[in-house]
Design brief:
Helix content is 16%, strand content 44%. By secondary structure, the protein is an alpha+beta fold. A six-stranded mixed β-sheet has the order 8-1-2-11-10-9. A five-stranded mixed β-sheet has the order 3-6-7-5-4. The longest helix is centred in the N-terminal third of the chain and has 10 residues.
Length: 160
């Protein structure tokens, strides 16, 4: 394949994302990781769970841990409302639900409008930011779900 054809292929590669809001920021995750999106439901608290684990839910006979993404991102807690959703994903072979303020839309964006996050924001707490998408009127923070939890937290989730 010629270099021109390669460049054209790379620049037209599309990312399919589910976008959602937390606080005033818009985030996106790869749609291939998302199993389903549910309205808020009754969450059963789990004793001695990490602070960001809201509890567990019964999802069609499977018990899955629910993580408050606001707390995980070190943002102020907020009461759940009619827009609050649980995004059910699979990370490292484990099904997990993430609570978000609202799900916005499914987006298809060209890979070439994304770039690595600026170094100033890539501290230890933000290592889960995969890239930043530059849309016409806004920025979209792309999250790497595999990195939202560190290795120890993955192990702790297995025991919930």
């Amino acid at each position: 394949m010629s270099t021109v054809a390669q460049t054209k292929t790379e620049s037209t590669e599309l990312l399919q994302l589910v976008s959602f809001k937390i606080a005033n920021e818009e985030f996106g995750v790869d749609i291939l990781n998302v199993q389903e999106i549910n309205k808020m439901t009754q969450i059963t608290k789990v004793p001695n769970a990490p602070e960001f684990v809201e509890g567990v839910i019964n999802l069609r006979g499977r018990v899955i841990p629910i993580i408050d993404l606001r707390t995980r991102l070190k943002l102020e807690k907020k009461e759940h409302d009619k827009d609050t959703r649980i995004i059910v994903v699979e990370i490292s072979g484990k099904t997990v639900g993430f609570i978000v303020d609202a799900v916005k839309e499914v987006l298809r964006i060209p890979m070439n409008i994304t770039e690595a996050p600026p170094e100033i924001v890539t501290g230890v707490d933000s290592e889960f930011i995969r890239a930043v998408g530059k849309l016409e009127d806004r920025l979209l923070i792309l999250i790497d779900l595999e990195k939202v939890l560190n290795a120890e937290e993955h192990v702790n989730l297995q025991s919930i």
